[in-house]
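User: Design a sequence. Structure:
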């Protein structure tokens, strides 16, 4: 049995729950100094350093002339991507676009006493950097990352969207990535990856423009680089290992639950797959299904390690208890494989994305349903949200006072300013109302 079921009321179950609640971890400190040095090198030597790192780690014969993807390369990519994939990309783009259009915010103003006008102006950032991982040297192109990051930025109105992705050993980019980017209007693409790509986006080089926001997943070097440049630019989040929490009752289909646990486990040996069920029979059957389905995965070894070291099956006393566990853990993906699942949604307070019912694998959210798959992990769904249009906008307060309004408010402003010992603040109001001595 790859995962031994535990009851939530047992000492072992309570210990496991406590560990899950405390699962937040900072980025891998082992690469911190290496990343710091890379960022400094890019700041000092720019494109020269970018080419050196790319030659060392990705494409041995890489030259500066290959850095930016050209128009002919994009045109050729369309010839290399088959009709079926094109159709799938079009459908995914339509779904993601439709969903994120609803996230747009409008500027607003209100008029108060004495003609005071206040409000909020919503504007996009000028530029965004979209990091797309290489995907095993370009063999498994992460086109979903292109769409999930690039489409919301476009809807927000970002004028300059800059995509970076590692070159393969021949100095090329998988054509599927180029087609996906082109279909959503991104044509500024550079063949750089890892921490040096993040540094280039944050500080700029002669070839790569600096940006205001950096988004996209990556390895520990990418995550550490994003954390180090955060503050100079906005980043989407520092993500931890992928995770799913499945709540299942006796109506759940064990094969489905096991398949969804495996879908998370195949990401990474650190991935977290959790089942909380009210049925001992379901717990036992899911455990058997995991063993039966594991050999069918191309990434069996990774998934097996993740399940053996991180996987959890808990038996709860009730759905209410299971829901409360879900709220405590605030998982990235939460699946409700329970009877009348929609009736329980209103009780969910903390989750990155909620999948309702037996027929909704988490992969629908990863690729095609429409909502964003960039989600908070490690319990941060308690206070964080999915990446969306709001990631690429900022909001400015608007304040306008006619003289009559300032005359009415001046005494109050001065009173509060003087209380705080800020006489200059008080004077700035008084001087406009002939109250200044």
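Assistant: Done.
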């Amino acid at each position: 049995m790859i995962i031994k079921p535990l009851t939530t009321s047992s000492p072992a179950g309570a210990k496991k729950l406590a560990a899950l609640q405390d699962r937040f971890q900072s980025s891998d400190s082992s690469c911190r100094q290496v990343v710091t040095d890379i960022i400094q090198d890019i700041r000092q030597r720019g494109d020269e350093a970018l080419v050196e790192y790319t030659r060392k780690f990705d494409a041995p014969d890489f030259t500066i002339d290959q850095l930016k993807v050209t128009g002919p390369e994009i045109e050729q990519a369309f010839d290399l991507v088959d009709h079926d994939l094109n159709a799938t990309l079009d459908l995914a783009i339509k779904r993601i676009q439709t969903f994120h259009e609803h996230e747009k915010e409008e500027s607003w103003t209100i008029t108060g006493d004495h003609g005071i006008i206040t409000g909020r102006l919503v504007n996009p950032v000028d530029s965004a950097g979209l990091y797309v991982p290489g995907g095993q040297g370009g063999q498994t192109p992460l086109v979903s990352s292109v769409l999930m990051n690039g489409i919301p930025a476009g809807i927000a109105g970002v004028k300059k969207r800059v995509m970076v992705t590692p070159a393969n050993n021949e100095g090329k980019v998988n054509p599927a990535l180029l087609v996906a980017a082109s279909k959503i209007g991104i044509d500024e693409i550079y063949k750089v990856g890892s921490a040096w790509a993040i540094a280039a986006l944050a500080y700029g080089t002669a070839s790569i423009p600096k940006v205001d926001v950096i988004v996209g997943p990556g390895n520990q070097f990418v995550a550490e680089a994003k954390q180090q440049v955060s503050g100079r630019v906005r980043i989407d989040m520092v993500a931890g290992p992928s995770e799913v929490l499945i709540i299942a009752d006796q109506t759940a289909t064990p094969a489905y639950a096991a398949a969804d646990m495996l879908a998370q486990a195949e990401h990474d040996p650190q991935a977290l797959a959790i089942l909380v069920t009210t049925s001992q029979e379901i717990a036992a059957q899911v455990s058997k299904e995991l063993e039966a389905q594991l050999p069918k995965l191309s990434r069996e070894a990774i998934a097996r390690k993740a399940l053996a070291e991180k996987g959890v099956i808990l038996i709860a006393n009730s759905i209410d208890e299971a829901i409360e566990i879900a709220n405590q853990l605030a998982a990235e993906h939460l699946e409700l494989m329970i009877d009348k699942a929609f009736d329980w949604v209103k009780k969910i307070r903390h989750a990155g994305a909620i999948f309702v019912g037996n027929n909704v694998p988490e992969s629908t959210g990863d690729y095609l349903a429409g909502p964003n798959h960039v989600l908070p992990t490690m319990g941060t769904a308690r206070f964080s949200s999915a990446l969306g249009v709001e990631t690429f906008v900022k909001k400015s307060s608007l304040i306008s006072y006619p003289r009559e309004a300032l005359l009415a408010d001046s005494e109050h402003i001065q009173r509060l300013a003087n209380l705080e010992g800020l006489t200059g603040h008080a004077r700035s109001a008084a001087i406009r109302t002939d109250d200044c001595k």
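The mean pLDDT is 96. The radius of gyration is 26 Å.
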